[in-house]
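Example (one chain per record):
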Amino acid sequence: MPTEESVSASASASGALLLCRAAPDSVAVVVPLLGERMPLLRAGEEWSVLVPQGGPWRHGDEPVDRVLTGWAAALAVGAPWPVIALWWDADRAGCTLASGFRRTVGYVWLADGTPAGEDEAMRTFAGRLGLDPVLDLQSLDRLTRPDPEADARTRMRGLLAVLTRAGVALPAGLVPGESADRLGAAARALPGVTRTEAAGRRPTAGESRLAPWMPWVGGPGARALALAQMAAGLPLTAWALRRRSGGWITAGVLLVAHGALGMAYGLTRSP
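Predicted structure:
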């Protein structure tokens, strides 16, 4: 059974990155759903990267993989683009892909690089991202095979090499495997970095192409999205409560709350 010291050591060694296939201004609109401010940077022509500071897993008992899976799901349901969560701690590393209302898919490696996931996950991963069904899938497949010379960091670099062909270009200094503190410091020192807003801020309608879908606009698109968020959030919260998963509970509650806010705001603006 893990001791308090081992849990603390794992938390301090943990880190994560959230890759969103959207421009930073679009991502900034929906990130307040997560309730944590974090650095946001462009990571390629069509991608952005968020650098979580790690409050939920560093100051709570929820592991980093559960937190990031819940966050990725919340961001993907609330926006029309996929989200990839890269995470690691002292014992494991992995990735999670969230896309719309579809079930999240992920893969895990132990610290020494031993594969600990299902091969089918990588095929789903490639299909949902529109990766090359031959070359890219072969590269992903190699990451699921035993390799005594590849540890978890090496596996993560291999995954990023495939994502690079999909347009991902991580800014200098954002190296998977580093702690949240080091990643945060590196991100804040980079040109073009912005700090996402806390929950509760209402951006103006001109701040993003997603504005017509946001709750403060109150239009038909916003009401449809709000209803979809509530429809997804309620069963997700119930499932998370049964599993006692704090990360998923947070995602479910945020979806329900955001959806309810959007519906209420839309009704007050209805003629």
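Caption: The CA atoms of residues 155 and 163 lie 13 Å apart.
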